[in-house]
Structures are given as structure tokens and as C-alpha cells.
Amino acid sequence: MELKKLTNTFSVSPQIRVPDLAALREMGFRAIICNRPDGEGADQPTFTEIERAARELDIEAHYLPVESGKVSDQDAERFRGYLDTLPRPLLAYCRSGMRSATLWALASTPAMSLVEILAAGKRAGVDLSGLTRRIGSPHQSAEEQHDVVIVGAGAAGVATASSLLARAPGLDIAIIDPADVHYYQPGWTMVGAGVFRPETTARPMGSVLPRNVRWIKAAVAAFEPTDNAVILEGCRVVKYRQLVVCPGLKLDWNAIEGLPQTLGRNGVTSNYRYDLAPYTWQLVQQLKGGRALFTQPPMPIKCAGAPQKAMYLSSDHWRRAGRLNQINVEFYNAGAALFGVADYVPALMKYVESYGIDLNFGFNLTAVNGEARRATFARALPGGGSETFETGFDLLHVVPPQKAPDFIRVSPLADAGGWVDVDQASLRHKAYENVFGLGDATSTPNAKTAAAARKQAPVVAHNVLAALGVTRGAATYDGYGSCPLTVERGKIVLAEFLYGGKVAPTFPSWIIDGKKPSGLAWLLKERILPPLYWRGMLKGREWFVQPQVTD
Fold first, then answer.
1. Catalytic residue status for 483
2. Cα first-last separation, the chain
3. Which stretches make up the Beta-lactamase hydrolase-like protein phosphatase-like domain (predicted)?
4. Which residue from 65, 104, 236, 411 has the highest number of Cβ atoms inside 10 Å of its Cβ?
């Protein structure tokens, strides 16, 4: 826990967690302010979790969420009210502490001069110089420039940077990402089934980034594509010749009423968060009987097969333990089909029938009452309108609704749906020729999977270099995506497909028939794909994914 002391009675910090609160209480803190909106990060506890634990320690907790880079004068005014009324010492936190420091700086004027505010920031190790325009100085904020700027250091961003450097080792590249940890998210299904340890799916961000890339550890606030500029929190400016946008998705936990209050307790879990996947496995092991509900929200979501992967692996464990007959397994899918590519549905249905799973299509989870163990769903009616349905549970695995990050949805780069608006073949932005997008936040109609990003990264790398005049020709992405559907421990239905749901197997059917459960496919998922991710994809090794290039 890194505290930055701006005054004798006020500090800021990066994201805190429930175990940190006891230490904060021992340090004397009497109140905390959360400036980070829920759902920004995959490993982020909700404010409700923090508030509940703080209350037990007699610490006041207040919620003033502010989107990164969008601290308004009204936000500062509300923050000033907290500074004037809350007991001291007082701590404010966000993802990195920067939003909280910005709020403090703006709220501290005119009681403190600009020089005093900047000096306090410097002593605390917080650069507040980007606020000089708002506080009253005519000086401009710092600016830097690179040949290629990549927004997002997830699978797509790191793979693209490595593919670029494999082709042009001397290229000047910067990656913008505030996260300290890089996650192998496809492994969380296996964590939730007790196959992987959670720590094997996480590595320090600095250890996975290419050595020759400049890491700008900050959050993006806005884009100015007509000026070839990215605006960071604190009003810093990064200029580019070519921009690659791949920030991933936002998990909207708050879209389901009552969910943040009960996540990680009362039998409510999700493999879509790093810290909750182990709780899934704990619940599966402990459940002796009752009702186990698995949900899937409206599309698009990352890895559309993940909701039912959790269901199949849990059911397999209960069958092996001799408890499946005592457990009613129910799947509530907001969509109309078990899987989007019909060729793989027959194999999946055999497992649905074998496990005795009750399928419910058109049901969207809208509310959870953890204490009462009740879940509420909305269901669209054939003639229009909707109805609500409430049911009890002993275990509830939730997949939250998902959308592009806020700073993407409100930017000039977004289409009407909020996605980065790119051509589905070239992955070049439809309006800005020196902007490319890949990964989960783009408008392309492919499955949002790590396998898709692995295929997209070399395409973007080639096309960026062609735009810079380093190479020639145009690379195209065919919509490839892959979903290893873990139907039981030791067996996988390996779904691989292109745009339009066209089946596209990597291996001949005599090795792995993707339409049937396969032990070799499980070996691929368990033993081969993780090292292929860490040592291949993230290192720019393009095995089986070299792009097609035309003149």
C-alpha cells in the first residue's frame, strides 16, 4: 500500500483492498474517499466491499467516482466539501492516486497558491504540473512524441508491440497502460475449476513488456485524432505518427442491482475477476446439494464460451464426487442459443443432457439479493415488453454485462455503439488513417478472445509499418477466433471459426476434431497454450498466425 502524503492530514493512494483497512486504522485514518468508479479493472474490489469492511473498523467511507482524466470543477467542489467536513487524517484513493491528487489540487485553490500545490505534489512524488492551465499558470503541460503509440498493454497491445519490433527492431514505440499486473485471463476458467493456481495467471507488467518499448504508466483521458494526440490523466499529452488502440473491455458489475454488495460472499462468484475465481472453486467444492445458477449477459462479451465452461467443469466435479444428483444446475442465457456457431452445439448438448442442466434462453440477470440468495431475471416477451422472474440459489456464477471503456465510448474514435470503429479486414480506423484498433474494444464482428487478438496483432503490425513506409502491401484479418470449451476435466470441444461462423480448424480432424470432445484439446489448453501465450504471443513469435499480405 503506497501512501502519498500531500499535507499533514491528507494522503492519496492507489487502489486499496479490504485487508489494507486494518493497517490504515492503525495509522490513524478516520475517513476514506473512493474516487475510482467500480468496474475499471479486472482485479478491482467494489466500493461496497470496501465500505462494508471500513464500517466495521469505524472508518467513514465515501464514494465520489470520477472517470480518469475527466475531473470537473463540480467534482472538485464536492471534494472540497469532503475536505472541509470529514474527520482527519483523511485518505482518498483511485487506480493510481492521480485522480484523487487532482481533485485535492483543484479543491485546494484559492486557499493554497499554485506554487504551494505543486511543491506539495513534488514532495509526495505526484506530478501536478499538468494542472497549471486550470489552476492559473500560462505554461503548457509536458508533451512527448513517438512513432507508434499503443493504448493498452493487455494481450493485444503487448503482442502488437512485439510483432512490430520483430519486423522493425529500432522502431520508437510507447505503450500506455496504468496497470501494474498483466493477466492471462483465459486461465481463470481453470482457476475456477481448481486446475490452475491463480498466481500462474499473473505477472508484473514490467516483466512482459518488450525491453525497447517506453511504458507510460498512466490512464488515457481523451483522444485528439485530428492533432495526432492522446491526452493522459493530469493533462499530459503524447503525440504519435501511428496510433494502435486496444484497451480491452469494461466489466459493468453495477449494471446488476445488488451484485457489488454480494460479490465474493453469499455463494455469489465470477471467473471474470482474478480475485473471485478461487472463490468459485471453493464454492464448487463445498456445495453438497441445492441449486447452482450460471448466467450469461447479452453479447458482446469476452470469451462467449466462458459462462458455460464454468458450468461444465463444476458439473463434472459434482458428478465425480457423487453429488450431481443432489444439485440442480441451471443456465440462464440472455441470448437465444447455447453457442453462436451451430456446428459445435450438438457436442455441447450431449453434455447438457448428461449433466441434467436446465437451459433457459432469453433470461438476463438484473438483480441479486445475496443475503436472501435470490436472483432476478428479465425476460423479453414475444409480443414486446418484458417480464421478471425470481428464483433462489445456493451457488450463483455471474458474468457481468460488458462494454468498451468509458474513455473509448465518448471519444471521436467510437462508432454509434461505443466501439473503436475499424475496418474488419485491415483493422484501420474508418475515419482516421493513422489509427488502428484490435482486441475486445473494436467494432469487428468476431469473437472477443485472446486467440482473435493473437491473429490480429501481426495484421496490425504489418499495416502500421506499411503506413510508415517501412514495408509494403496490406495484411488482412479473417475474423479468426477460438474458444476451447472445457466440457469436462480432461476433455475440450475446440471451437475455431472465422467471420460469419465459418468453421476453421487449425488441426486435421484425425488429430483434433473440434466438433467432438478431445483429450488432446485439453492438453493444448492446460499445457501448451499458457507457455505459447507468455513465450510466444507476447514475444512476437507468430506461429500459425502469419498474416496474409496482398500488394
1. yes
2. 53
3. 3-108
4. 104
Decide yes or no: CATH 1.10.486.10 for domain 253-401: no
Report phi then psi at 13, rounded to 5.
-155, 165
Residue 133's contacts (CB-CB under 8 Å, 6 or more residues apart) are: 139, 140, 141, 235
Q: How far apart are CA 107 and CA 467, in angstroms?
A: 45
Q: Look at residue 383 in the predicted model and tell me its pLDDT.
A: 80
CA distance 231 to 222: 5
Cα–Cα dist 41/95, whole Å: 9
> Residues near 318 by Cβ (< 8 Å), separated by ≥ 6?
284, 287, 324, 327, 329
| Average pLDDT of the segment spanning 389-395 | 97
Question: Residues 76-85: what's their mean pLDDT?
Answer: 95
Q: Which of 94, 235, 246, 303 is catalytic?
A: 303
**Measured distance CA(321)–CA(317) in Å, rounded:** 6
C-alpha closest to that of 237 among 220, 213, 257, 250: 220
Looking at residue 132, what is its pLDDT?
64
The correct answer on CATH 3.50.50.60 for the domain covering 144-249+404-550 is yes
Q: Write the secondary structure of 112-168 as one string of H (helix), E (strand) and C (coil).
A: CCHHHHHHHHHHHCCCCHHHHHHHCCCCCCCEEEEEEEEECCCHHHHHHHHHHHHHC
